[in-house]
Amino acid sequence: MGKVLTIHGGVPLKGKVTVRGAKNLVPKAMVAALLGDCPSVLRNVPEIKDVAVVTSLLKIHGVTVTKDEATGDLTMDPSGTKTATSNEIDTHAGDSRIPILFCGPLLHSLGEALIPNLGGCKIGDRPIDFHLDVLRHFGAEIDKAGPFGTTIRAPHGLTGAKISLPYPSVGATEQVLLTAVRAKGTTELENAAVEPEILDLISLLQKMGALITVGRDRVIRVTGVEKLKGYNHKALPDRNEAASWASAALVTKGDIFVEGAIQRNLTSFLHTYRQIGGEFEVTDDGIRFFHPGGELKPLILETDVHPGFMTDWQQPLVVALTQASGVSIIHETVYENRFGFTTALVEMGARVQLHSECLGAIPCRFGQRNFKHSAVITGPTPLTGADIDIPDLRGGFSHLIAALAAEGTSHVTGIELINRGYEKFMEKLTGLGARVEMNELASSL
Question: Where in the numbering of this chain does the Enolpyruvate transferase domain appear (predicted)?
């Protein structure tokens, strides 16, 4: 039976939260442990579902995973790496999209990888074929015929390649890095993603002995090595969670100190946050985000790959824009279906219109394709409590902060999705003064 979160809104969130290792790095760093010939230690690991999923996947592949209960650090020993059975793999079908990144490391270690049918948030097209095409460049052979997923083999080993991505995809860039570091020869990746999480993964791989350079022109060059050692690495803090709590402070007219937030990884967000009327103070330990009083201001914004305004920041900020005085326009250029979460906001009283046209300075790849990827938000509008079912991770958190700001009571289901990327969020909410209750979902709901 699922759970329902009851939220009594209208209370400003005030206090401190701590963000730990980034969801968009930690699971990939765990996968990288398969590449080493000795144990790796990953520090600053959050307690989120994606970490539990990758821990289980590592274990069924023979990796010994030990958690330090005092610190949360993970030690991963790949010395017993083995091929998982189809039944073991099938238990993880639909859990997340992380398993596809096991391919390169497993092909180097075992010559074969079996990948389950993938899951993840339904926010747009993130096809497995993108990853499979990358692996084919290295010489992998793909067999999709199996009932439990996709079998990938490298009977002749993997060889470096020249790859040009049609879009600077984070997942495809990670796939190239995790495959190229032990492939024979040199790999050159053009139009690579260069997000802070990508650069932190590169730092980790360099600690293992990888030869990697990053050019200013989004070109990453990797010279493969025969073997890598383990790493000892502290994951960079989660900038997406930090931005989510910043938006929560703005929407609820609160004041939240986000311990662990790093200014240099939030530059474009901080610029936009101040434009809309929010304020922040940077310290060595984190960033204080608060509503300084007065009206919030509308804006025109386009999401983009780093160093642009990140797509994961857009959804919580949209909730804040429902309270801005005037008309705001958001052009989403990264995921074509990211505005699905606004249906619940409209039910709560927000005025949001979706459009298939590119309402931005530059037409994007979703233009003329009937994807409603632009939003016009008119405010301010009072929000009222509602019954909400969470559609995805970031949209779900956005629903939560809308309910926290709304007058009245909201009932939120699908709350388990939040556990994928937000550590101890119930504990953090109550610590900030939110009036919330978690109960078992009644059969009548």
Answer: 9-429
Q: Binding site for UDP-N-acetyl-alpha-D-glucosamine: what residues are annotated?
A: 97, 312, 334
Secondary structure of 62-131 as H, E, C letters: CCEEEECCCCCCEEEECCCCCCCCHHHHHCCCCCCCHHHHHHHHHHHHHCEEEECCCCCCCCCCCCHHHH
Length of the chain as a residue count: 445
Q: Which residues are annotated as a binding site for phosphoenolpyruvate?
A: 23-24
Helix axes 196-208 and 170-180, enclosed angle (nearest 10): 10
pLDDT digits (tens, 9 = 90+) for 358-386: 998 888 999 888 899 999 999 999 999 99
* Catalytic residue check, 121: yes
Residue ranges in the chain whose pLDDT is less than 70: 1, 90, 93-96, 117-127, 145-148, 442-445
Annotated binding site: 23-24, 97, 312, 334
Helix (H) or strand (E) holding 175: helix 170-180
pLDDT tens column, 65-120: 999 999 999 999 999 999 887 778 767 766 667 888 999 999 999 999 988 766 54
- Closest C-alpha among 179, 188, 207 to residue 31: 179
The residue annotated as part of the active site, out of 103, 121, 358, 364, is: 121
- Residue 426 neighbours by CB distance under 10 Å: 16
Give residue 440's identity as a one-letter amino acid code.
E
